[in-house]
Amino acid sequence: MALRCTLDRYLLLMAQEHLEFRLPEIKSLLSLFGGQFISSQETYGKSPFWILSLPSEDIARNLMKRTVCAKSIFELWGHGRSPEELYNSLKNYPLEKMVPFLHSDSTYKIKIHTFNKTLTQEEKVKRIDALEFLPFEGKVNLKKPQHIFSILEDYGLDPNCIPENPYNIYFGRWIADGQRELIESYSVKKRHFIGNTSMDAGLSFIMANHGKVKENDIVFDPFVGTGGLLIASAHFGAYVYGTDIDYNTVHGLGKASRKNQKWRGPDENIRANLRQYGLEKYYLDVLVSDASKPSWRKGTYFDAIITDPPYGIRESTRRTGSQKEIPRGIEKCPESHVPVSLSYHLSDMFFDLLNFAAETLVLGGRLVYWLPVYTPEYTEEMVPWHPCLKLISNCEQKLSSHTSRRLITMEKVKKFENRDQYSHLLSDHFLPYQGHNSFREKYFSGVTKRIIKEEKSNQE
Q1: Per the structure, how many domains does the chain have?
Q2: Any idea where the Ribosomal RNA large subunit methyltransferase K/L-like methyltransferase domain is (predicted)?
Q3: Same domain, yes or no, for 44 and 113?
């Protein structure tokens, strides 16, 4: 007879940014650590308080060692919509689960956390005193307690309409904090080598988490730029590798991107970025290469492909080629041939990327990439499709009133076969997505209209 796994309830305190990215990150990390995502809430929306059911505290701790979307996690002892409901909930919590943290040899403190409201010190003390019915036998230690307990009160999301009483009150034992400090410690502002499109540190870690990057993985970025996504993956113990078509960027040559700095320094490159954070041992290499013509032997090499392709706005979309059409029978260019840079349509770029991922990812490996969209025309059918890849999540980050980019996470679920290479041409998704080849023109068209509108309003 199979043993039934008991699940404890935990309270996640979430950060209030990148709201659409939070749920896929938590789901991906729980999947990575063997925990099933079981929730007592149907939807999360914008609330910072999430109640989860998890099989063990170890999984909860592992989750917090990775997440940048969550601030803290608590073992939930009680929950109510009023103080009375909370106290009744606490009285029904099993005493045997409380005792290990309340015995006479232990030290503790109780903290108050309120969302969307500030309490006076007198109000805080009153709330703590009301918990005297709990069997605390240890001593209070405000500086270095062995155990920390928290009362968390939710006053809703509207700062202009704060209720007198909270909508929800929670009480729990603090277990661990998330990795929010990584956003500051890996800030692009402090980084040795940056470019025009260097990825924000917080989003880089979110992408690595969506990709389920773990120790000893091999992670690849085919549009590596200055290597920001490699840094996030290397921080989690993965070996990193990348390519880019831009010779100067790969070798750290040419004009600098920083203000008041004309040229890049002699040691301003991707390897130096990883060295800056003590991650150089995870750096495999970065090559000058064209993503439209990968020079890989057939095989599965990568546990994750995490990338931010160019959209044609601050970085051009380019591939190598010849102005003269090369006859189909010739597979190799003459030695004297110097490739020139040609335009690379967005639809071609993303379908090449999906094909490459389907060929080179291990089964269960993930592709995480940004897809630019013109918001008024966007539909889900415009997300590129591939028979070997399953869509895991699709999160939006707004860029302007009329454009956004979507973080697409896909997982390889089927072994690649030669016939899969052109299957997208038969897909209903293909023709709608080709409309985004004009994303650049639509982007700047919107910018021009906005400037004209602002000028008119200033003249009135």
Answers
A1: 2
A2: 190-320
A3: yes
Is the domain of 173 the same as that of 282? no
Instruction: Supply the DSSP string of 210-224, one letter for each residue.
Output: HTT--TT-EEEETT-
Residues 192 and 109 in one domain: no
3-state secondary structure at position 13: strand
pTM of the model: 0.86
pLDDT in tens, 225-235: 989 999 999 99
The tens digit of pLDDT for each residue in 379-434 reads 888 898 899 999 999 999 998 888 899 999 999 999 998 777 766 665 655 555 55
Q: Which residues of 7-35 are buried (b: 16+ CB within 10 A; e: fewer)?
A: eebbbbbbbeebbebbbbbbbbbbebbeb
CA–CA separation, 420 and 72 (whole Å) = 44
Is residue 436 within 8 Å of 346, Cβ to Cβ? yes
Instruction: Please tell me whether residues 264 and 302 are part of one structural domain.
Output: yes
Q: What is the CATH number of the domain that holds 420?
A: 3.40.50.150
What is the separation, in whole angstroms, between the first and last Cα of the chain? 79
Residue 203 DSSP symbol = H
Between strands 38-39 and 8-14, the pairing is unpaired
Q: Are residues 173 and 189 both part of a single domain?
A: no
Tokens of 107: 């030290």
407 forms beta bridges with 370, 395
- Supply the range of the domain harboring residue 343: 182-317+339-438
- Whether 154 contacts 47, CB under 8 Å: yes
Is residue 409 situated within a structural domain? yes
Quote the pLDDT of residue 388.
Answer: 95
